[in-house]
C-alpha cells in the first residue's frame, strides 16, 4: 500500500510541475485572419532606458520557435516569410510599460515595430522570475502597407535570465 501511495505522490508532483509551464491563450489577427497563439517565451535583457534595471522581452507565437530564434528575429525570419510563424513581441520595462513592440507576419514586407501607446501590457504578475498578464492592441492597427492587425493575448511565462 505504501508503494502505491508513493507512486501517487510522484504522479501528482509531476502533474504540478507540468502545470507550472508557460501558458498562453489568445489571437493575433492579420488582414482578417486569426492565428491562435500557442507559445510564449520570455527573457530578460539589459534595460534600454535604464541599464541598471532589466527589461523583459515577451515573444508570443502561433507555433514553436527554434531555440536560436527566440532571442534573434533573423533566425525566425524565414519561417515568418513562409507563412509558418506569426508572432507578437513586446519589450516591457521595470515600470510594466511596453517600450517596444514588433509584429511578424508574411503580409508585412518588414516586421512592424516601434513604440506605441496602442500596444498595451496589463500585468498580473511581474517579478524577477515570472511575467503574466494581458498583451493587446487598444484598437485595430495598420502596417506601413496598410495591412490591418490586432492582438489580444493572455499569458504566464518564466523569465529566462540575461545572456
Roughly what fraction of the amino acids lie in strands? Answer: 35-45%
* CA-based shape: globular
Number of extended strands: 11
Element order: H for helix, E for strand: HEEEEHHEEEEEEE
The tally of structural domains comes to 1
- If you average the pLDDT, what whole number results? 89
How would you characterize the overall build of this protein?
The chain has 163 residues and is an alpha+beta fold. It has one domain. Helix content is 20%, strand content 45%. It has helices at 2-19, 67-71, 73-81; strands spanning 23-30, 33-36, 39-46, 54-61, 87-92, 98-104, 112-114, 119-126, 130-137, 141-142, 148-158. The strands form two sheets. Strands 1, 2, 8, 9, 10 and 11 form a six-stranded antiparallel β-sheet that branches. Strands 3-4-5-6-7 form a five-stranded antiparallel β-sheet, with no helix packed on it. The radius of gyration is 18 Å and the shape is globular. The model is unreliable at 3-19 (pLDDT under 50).
